[in-house]
Design brief:
This protein is of the alpha+beta class. Helix content is 35%, strand content 27%.
């Protein structure tokens, strides 16, 4: 995740938390640990996984990107699966409170 993408992701996380959502920052890929390689979440896992309060609670997945950056095929595939299963899955390259409010009230 680049610096600009981190700024967007952090702002989204803070705003959705204030709105009462539970927000998790997800890590994917692999890294070398003390005991060898450690695998995180599968390739394409969205950057943010959000539980929207309500009855029933709803699921929102957000893939954050830098301006003009596109989602990978793996990311598009997982986002499509989430939408097909009744969740809300989007790609955002900016922070907009009105847009976030719309997403959590769908």
């Amino acid at each position: 995740m680049g610096k600009a993408e981190n700024i967007v992701s952090d702002a989204i996380r803070a705003y959705l938390t204030i709105k009462g959502c539970i927000v998790y920052r997800m890590q994917s890929g692999r890294f070398r640990g003390a005991g060898g390689w450690i695998t995180m979440n599968p390739e394409g896992t969205p950057d943010l996984v959000v539980m929207i309060p309500g009855s029933p609670a709803r699921f929102l997945a957000i893939e954050t990107k830098q301006k003009d950056e596109k989602a990978s095929l793996a990311q598009k595939t997982i986002l499509a699966q989430i939408n097909e299963l009744g969740g809300i899955a989007v790609v955002l390259d900016h922070y907009d409170e009105e847009e976030l409010d719309d997403l959590i009230t769908l």
